[in-house]
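To: structure desk
From: M.T.
Subject: fold request, one chain
Message: Could you run this one when you get a chance? Sequence is below, nothing fancy, just the single chain.
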Amino acid sequence: MALFYVTYDLIKTKDYEKLFARLKEYKAQRVLLSVWAFRRENTTTAALRDDLKNYIDSDDRLLVIESADWSSRNLLVDPNKL
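Reply: Done. Structure tokens follow.
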């Protein structure tokens, strides 16, 4: 199962709740204040981006990363436990 990270900048309207609700449907957990991590099968970064852009405004920024390797310090949640 692939490990994905999602990060974002919400520019004008700071309506986080729609995006947070969708990320929680993915069983995503925050690893940093605006970085979430989750595991998924049978998807791509482009497919996740296309889905998540429905939950943010057109001027917001969104980055989806599929990770094969990572290292960290003092995360809110350990991605190895997802």
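Reply (cont.): The domain at 2-76 is CATH 3.30.70.240 (Alpha-Beta Plaits). Let me know if you need anything else for the meeting.
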